[in-house]
Amino acid sequence: MSTPFYVSPQQAMADRAEYARKGIARGRSLVVLQYADGIVFVGENPSRALHKFSEIYDRIGFAAAGKYNEYENLRIGGVRYADLRGYTYDRDDVTARGLANVYAQTLGTIFSSAAEKPYEVELVVAEVGETPEGDQIYRLPHDGSIVDEHGSVAVGGNAEQISSFLDQRHRDGMSLAEALKLAVQALSRDTNGSEREIPAERLEVAVLDRTRPQKRKFKRIVGRQLARLLAADGASTEAESADGAEDSEEE
Amino acid sequence: MEANTRGTGRLPAAFLTPGSSSFMDFLAEHQPELLPGNRQLPPVQGVLEAPHGTTIVAVTFPGGVVLAGDRRATMGNVIAQRDIEKVFPADEYSAVGIAGTAGLAVEMVKLFQLELEHFEKVEGAQLSLEGKANRLSTMIRSNLGMAMQGLAVVPLFAGYDLDREKGRIFSYDVTGGRSEEHNFAATGSGSVFARGAMKKLFRDDLTEEQATTLVVQALYDAADDDSATGGPDVARRIYPIITVITEDGFRRLTEQEASELSRSVLQRRLEEPDGPKAALL
């Protein structure tokens, strides 16, 4: 008969955090930036079908790094939460803050319950406001904490480096093309500081565009429009906002 | 984990259980009392009085489909509302117009819109037009209990089929029976008169503008002979709701456009009260 080894709570939590962080670090990082007309999500994703970004509700978008099946589960939970809440009350009563709280509670409970393995995910919940001041971005690490972000945020394995790169260069009121290019620049930097090329077809890009006439502001940017934005001269801001309106939906 | 969606606690297990992409299925499992079809109605003597919406018409044209409705809701012989809306976008490429018990109809549309949107978000792709039409069938069927007590909802569903590249119209009966209509269709109390008008005016080479004029003519004829259908109300500036769905998606005519269309039809009717004449042979 052996007595179980004593593990201090601090040690147990540190081990779980370590486990989750390692899992998240295996995936590629992604960034979420504010720009003049909304919020842009940019990540490297070789898959066209398995998305890292998606629409949760009218003005709310979701981004996730880490283990696909776990964040997909959370994403669908979020869509169900938002749709049920909007159906019970009103569409305006669905907010990013409410959703972020629910995610934080969910992740936190899972993280600290000994019966479950911690989720290896890091999420971003963003809501586009009527004006840039109304934009909200929340970052949700694996342990259920919640961070209110402004301007730019990166999640995933290499997040710290990318964040500091973005912090130095991101400014308010960037055009979509400028923000997109900055994001790609940030993502192309490797851990050791060297740069590599990310071809357009490996990029997943989506926006929450406050200028869309529809109630639903989430839109994926693909194909020709993406190529045009990447090629665009950073200064030409009007050209691409006009594109956004005319381009047809992919989904 | 309690099933609390109103507070800000952890997501209940049902939310994180992999399952169907249907919002209705999720509700049925998680909060069945919120589904309109699950509502228990006490036994009612005779017919329950509630505002009713009346005439909805639809017509296809090469490149799309037009769906329109009058604005009147009646309760017995009383006009309950003059500016009710009975035609709604279902999603980007389809619309639904509803005749029958107004309260239930509006609720059904709300759930139907949500059902399509939910599927689209979860799956990352739209339902086929056929799939959307079938979903609506299921919803009407779940309302059968109330329909038997006089609270029927009879929609007309129209959309642009992206695969077949044309506009299509589906009509329903109270039991959820679905049938595809060719060229034109109408539902509601004034529908017989509207259908007569459309039968005489329809051609298969209509332009979008001619198709929208056609539905206004049909609604005028419905209002002319059916007391529960309202004609264009120039004094109060209440005009029919006219929507057009094409490859470019759903569009509702602005009030300005609807008013111009209605006024020009009215103008002609001052000269010819029975409207345009079809050839005898």
UniProtKB/TrEMBL annotation, chain A:
Residues 232-251 are annotated as: Disordered. It comes from the Bacteria. GO terms for molecular function: hydrolase activity. Pathway: Protein degradation; proteasomal Pup-dependent pathway. InterPro entries: Ntn_hydrolases_N, Proteasome_alpha, Proteasome_alpha-type, Proteasome_asu_bac, Proteasome_sua/b. It is found in: Cytoplasm. Signal peptide: none annotated. Residues 240-251 have a biased composition (Acidic residues). The formation of the proteasomal ATPase ARC-20S proteasome complex, likely via the docking of the C-termini of ARC into the intersubunit pockets in the alpha-rings, may trigger opening of the gate for substrate entry. Interconversion between the open-gate and close-gate conformations leads to a dynamic regulation of the 20S proteasome proteolysis activity. Component of the proteasome core, a large protease complex with broad specificity involved in protein degradation. Belongs to the peptidase T1A family. This is Proteasome subunit alpha. It comes from Streptomyces cyanogenus.
